[in-house]
Design brief:
The complex is a heterodimer of chains A (about 325) and B (about 375). With about 325 residues, chain A is mainly α. Chain A has helices spanning about 1-20, 30-55, 60-80, 85-115, 120-140, 160-180, 185-190, 195-200, 205-230, 240-250, 255-275, 285-290, 295-310; strands spanning about 150, 230. The chains are: A mainly alpha (about 325), B alpha/beta (about 375).
Chain lengths: ~325, ~375
Amino acid sequence: MLERTKILLLASLLLCGLASWGLGGISPYYYDILIGIGINIILAVSLNLVNGYTGQFSLGHAGFMAVGAYASSWLTLTFGYILGTHATGTTFMYVAALLAGGIGAAVAGLAVGIPSLRLRGDYLAIVTLGFNEIIKGIIQNAEPLGAQRGLGGMVQHTNLFWTFAFAAITIYVVLNLVHSTYGSGFLAVRDDEIAAEAMGINTTKYKVLAFTIGAFFAGVAGGLYAHYKQFVHPEGFNFLRSVDIVVMVILGGMGSTFGVVFAAILLTILPEWLRAVSDYPWLPEWLREIAENRMILYSLLLIILMLTRPQGLFGGISFSKKRA
Amino acid sequence: MLRPIFLKALAMLASVSAVLAQDEIVIGEFASLTGGSASFGQSSHKGTELAIEEINRAGGVLGKKLKLITEDDQSMAGQPATIVRKLIAQDKAAAILGEVASSKSLEAAPICQQNKIPMITPASTNPKVTEVGDYIFRICFIDPFQGTVMSKFAQSKGWKKIAVLTDVKQDYSVGLTECFIRDFTANGGEIVREQKYSSGDKDFKPQLTSIKAAKPDAIFVPGYYGEVALIAKQARLLGIKVPLLGGDGWVGDSLLKVAGNALDGSFFSCHFSADDQSPKVQDFVKKYREKYGETPDDMAALGYDSAMILAEAIKRAGTTEPEKLRDAIAATKDHDGITGRITLDAQRNASKPAVIMTIDNGGFKFLETVTP
């Protein structure tokens, strides 16, 4: 079983390489959207480990993303010159910075998780929300990180390959973890915490672990984002960004990796597609005018989806379970 | 796997994207039409729209009509980069206009620079924006200038002791504060108290109480209108009677609605005043009122000027070729705009006059024009 998943991972990595090579010439706008999709997949799948599989409601994912974005940017900006402009050197530096950003976020996740994961439900949501604001507040007052002016000047290292390679790794790690014997603990914590504890599962340990791993990948996503947009601003990691990611998880279906990936893709494309709709010449005028208020339309679609499928698009359907 | 299906969908999306007519020059605009800074974004957009309409009514430029394509960035970080890529790659914009907020312009500027598409920001005052590269221009003055203007003004009033209340969440406010303090202390003034707040705060009494104890001659509050109105009200409640000083962030619909008479006798610098009696300004105000039924503010005037300067540059360049257009914009000299005579310097910043306004009996009043 393990062999097959490993082959799948290698195959998707290969596909990332091919796609990156083959899609180099597409419109920068579509490239931008594709990168956005990749980053959102990482964020949504990693949050799904916490919110979906382990059943803890975290509202601070953008905070971890900020830690990763700023940590990795600071590293490449400060130490980037050491390895010069040689392609291998800078790529190495970049990947090292991404991982360091991830580790930084994981440490932050650990620091928040240990005291706060004794809380449940709404209380945990409030603590993670508070953490998000604290991170933002720290960055806003940290002069070396550009404070309120934002941090820019990073070299654009992020491309399709790295984005989707990390997305594939995220999916691989999360799927393998929750389908392993050890990982059943996550599901047990979600399904019935008291029963799980009675069975001898260290629920706090599992929660902290999910939190830390989730934070790690959010940090990596932050690093990818920073090295693509080349400019980060504390307002980009606010509460609304966290909610965006939560919406992807809920819409896709809590605890369904496939659904969450689908939702991440859908919710990245939809707002941009609605931008284009108002330009379609063959649409009647009144329809185009409606499409111009695209954020209302976007919200409306979300409401309809949630009313018709409260468990999420793919909630309760798990494609990967057949394998296990 | 998912990816191939998705790529197909994307290709389809590409094929149905709008077909552009050849006899038009596309101008891309990115603005915050919704979200936190929508009030600014809407104004600058309306000003830009009015300018483009006027140009087209007069026959366009180079025998072609200008087509303005506006995209909303929802006041959200991350959006400007995506939108500007769309405007450049999909809509084939010859030039980009936007944004009011410096943090949004800073995100878009590297992309315009990399694609060698000229970008003119109407109102981003952060010095860093035009430092990004030689394709990035601005037609407003920069933060240091407003700090200098207000410091000069305070000295001309004979004030020696000033307290400062800064919005640490806004780079704009931090920038103005730095320049104000530098100039004011260099000329023998004294900053008696420095206090901070964050956008969105509602209670400023602790900071104001501390400021009151320092007995300043005036308080410099270079924040945005929402908080400034509350600060003014609470200052008066605490018995602080000295005037408040500020910058163009004060200009907003709700400032006087919320503050009432609390700001009477205060002063701020800005780009433009609808009370200015010069025929050029009055003509603009009339046209704007006719179209939108409201009085134009700073951002509207700047949006208008940015589009006019761009159109003029296209005319002078005789082409929309990026390099020639860039040189033509850079050569802008003594453009007779709504916000004063605009000349772009070697750093691609505008050197132009500022307007000092006062608030009297719950209304704005034009006081004087200060040239650099």
